[in-house]
Amino acid sequence: MKKGGYLDLFLTFARIGGLTFGGGYAMLPMLQKEVVENRKWATEEELLDYYAVGQCTPGIIAVNVATFIGHKEKGVLGGIMATLGVVAPSFFIILLLAAVIRNFADNVYVAHALAGIRVAVAALVVNAVIKLWKKGVKDLLGIAIFLLVFLLSVFLSLSPIWVVIGAIVLGLLYGQFAPKKKGEEK
Amino acid sequence: MITFLLLFYEFFKAGLFAIGGGLATLPFLYEIADKYAWFDSSILSDMIAISESTPGPLGVNMATYAGYNCGHAVLGVPGGILGALTATIGLITPSVIIILIVANFLKKFKDNKLVSDAFYTLRPAVTALIASACFSILETSLLNIPGFQADGSYLTLFCLPAILLFLLLFLGMNLWKKIHPVVFIVIAAAAGILLKL
């Protein structure tokens, strides 16, 4: 199989989709492993950017990120292949559950295993956030934004859309009025 | 035939208007449950449990499930499979189209100053959003808040076995960075059964 081909995109994202328990954020450790470290299809910074766009566009974040990376690698068809890959495992699992097994979630062993999996997901996501922090938070302004957004969303459940819009406006203003530091970078 | 078109239409709409992913799809699913006889809204809470216990996003799981039920009622098992496919594709089509457009745009304007200015402050903000989601994952996996509210004992609030498992896993991840995350998930699932978490 050709690395970075359509089939590789499909299978890599199928693996990611099949191993992600919980929402789009639980996918982050898998993406960091498979996409950033193993395949080098994107950097940590790009992952953050895709999550940012995924927050304010319609649809499921997992799907959005898959489309982005597939598109980056192989254009439109690549985006479609990666997306189909990421939804394929859950599609077949649910199909099976809908057709055959009804009380899957009520099984005692399943419930205990899931409680364990939730702990692992929590540890994995904490780890993923630490990696992102190293890439995404670079100066005092970054730390201030991080703290503000963290507190607002934990205690006031502020909608992510407002966070994203606010951060964009702030970034544009900052770029206009404090251009010295940024100007040197790019 | 008309059923399948309706399925596609309803889930396309959910996919188009649910911004932020995951639970944002839920209100649309309640609306669909009210409007059609495809599934009962009481099934939605079961569905959330199933979604949390199977891989993949809630929206996709729900579309697959509802599509199967709806198609099954019309044409039996083949209809169920067709329905599941129709609803799932319907749900993801709008976001695929929109992201392809945005991705094209970003590719073109990657080096544009305004775009890089915007991302400069967006990155810490999104890191914080993910951290806050992480906070709620920690809360549900390590603390027993309903139990604490019932008996007020801190021994109930902190699930010690879970916290210990968390620390061990976290240490393991940082000691052996090359190990694939799924290894930790499998270990944790086994530990969950053994410790009766």
Question: How does this structure look, described?
Answer:
The complex is a heterodimer of chains A (186) and B (197). In chain A, 79% of the residues lie in helices and 0% in strands. By secondary structure, chain A is mainly alpha-helical. Chain A has two domains: 6-135, no CATH class; 137-186, no CATH class. The N and C termini of chain A lie far apart (38 Å). Chain B has 197 residues and is mainly alpha-helical. Chain B has two domains: 2-108, no CATH class; 113-195, no CATH class. Chain B has helices at 2-17, 26-35, 42-53, 58-108, 113-142, 145-151, 154-157, 160-175, 181-195. Chains A and B meet through helix 1, helix 2, helix 3, helix 4 and helix 5 of A and helix 1, helix 3, helix 4, helix 5 and helix 8 of B.
Question: Topology of this protein?
Answer:
The complex is a heterodimer of chains A (186) and B (197).
Chain A lengths: L5 H14 L8 H11 L5 H13 L4 H39 L8 H29 L3 H16 L4 H18 L1 H7 L1
Helix pairs in contact in A: 1-4, 3-4, 3-7
Chain B lengths: L1 H16 L8 H10 L6 H12 L4 H51 L4 H30 L2 H7 L2 H4 L2 H16 L5 H15 L2
Helix pairs in contact in B: 1-4, 3-4, 8-9
The helicity of chain A comes to over 70%
Strand content of chain A: under 5%
Distance between the termini of chain B: 47 Å
Radius of gyration of chain B: 21 Å
- Protein chains sharing the most extensive interface: A-B, 103 and 97 residues
